[in-house]
Amino acid sequence: MHNTLYIVDDNMPVPELPSNVITFETYLREYPKANEGRIRVINLCDTTRYLSQGYYCSLLGAARNHEVLPTVHLINSLRDSANLGIWLPIDKVDTAEFADKPKREIIICLGQSDQAAFAKVAQIIFERYSAPLLSATLSLEADGLLIQLNRIGVAELSAEQAAFFWSVIEQSVTFRWHKKSSKKKFRWDMALLVDPQEASPPSNKSAISRFVKAGAKLGINVEVLTAAQMQHVNQYDAVFIRETTSINHHTYRFACDAEKHGVVVMDDPDSILRCCNKVFLHDAFSYQNVPSLKTLFISKADSQSVELLETELNYPMVLKLPEGSFSKGVFKVADRPTLIERLESLFVDSALVLAQRYLYTEFDWRIGVLNGRALYACRYYMARNHWQIYNHKQNRTFSGDFDTLPTFEVPKIVLEAALKSAAVVGNGLYGVDIKVADNKAYVIEVNDNPNIDHGIEDNYLGEELYMQIMSEFLRRLEQRGSQ
Predict the structure, then answer these.
(1) Pair 426, 271: CB distance under 8 Å
(2) Helices H, strands E: what count in the chain?
């Protein structure tokens, strides 16, 4: 059992309380003590100022191997409280409490609220941000409750709030505190972003559950969230995007925000930017000598451009929008009228169109690459009676069959092309699409956020596939260290 000390600023007016409420000066000079046993420190000093007594109290507590609340890590996080918050889905909110006012202000002291109606909300806040004293703004929105956290010092409390604060402190002296780690054994928190409404998500539900389990085995608490639920990325240590990415989209904004705050994120903004735009990819391929099909960039649908395409590529040829995924925005044209018609329609949406040599193969290779290493390999066969893997017909998408193989069974020319093209993009998680003809490999594109579905990409590695991906997150988190 811990001996709990409550530390207050030297100049803080304190009511008559038990002897284990001491000043910072006393804690500085008289501790640690010989044979003191286990000590828990509740730091009630003002922590709003950097290098204040409150800051040093938590710093000294950690150095003395005392279990201290709040930690220095939390104090630093609260300094950026403008970006600190929690999102609760609507089914966990008692909306009746907001009938007269959609925005409420509460004070939380050691997990208790000064307004009894918000006791559960206060406990949720305290479990995630274990500070002795916080203020919170609760804003009811259409699909949930946004909780904005703010630091507050004891001196800023009203007389009524101060009375509540000290009553909780007095009661807590008799609490039997339980070590938080006994309830939560995770060192890291990860947000895994999904879109439940997405027709063709990068991972199916069974794969998502396996990512969660793999994370737990490695000490990573994985929360599966939608974009609406993930209001503040900097409250997490890592973000794993399992939603189809795009530049003009919240996935890219979340990735940028995560990178800005030092959060480990996959896909990173550069990977999204480079993979989502085929102009970058194929231009980089040509400069880096990555084997790929002949590709031309066209900016006009005039006769000169048409003649150039016919001369260089011949029919049939493939036209692509620079941005697109899952074979969308990709068209095969077999004659001049169709070419002109399709170019004119594509230029409505894009200033550039890619034209590429058409090469039919029975299947495309997909090599999963993670941090420059081949992770998994699949052969995706063309959809039935179609020239692509995916056949987007009306409101339904059909795909062909597949084989999943160990990477050591993949032809050397395919692996080399996959690793070389992935290196052009970065060191993230990619799916490299490759065709092989006449014993030559041709990289079609590098995809960020590649498909990882249970029953397909994991058919060879099984659970190990998820463990390897989450292990890479763990490696990056440990490399970054606690912040």
Answers:
(1) yes
(2) 13, 24
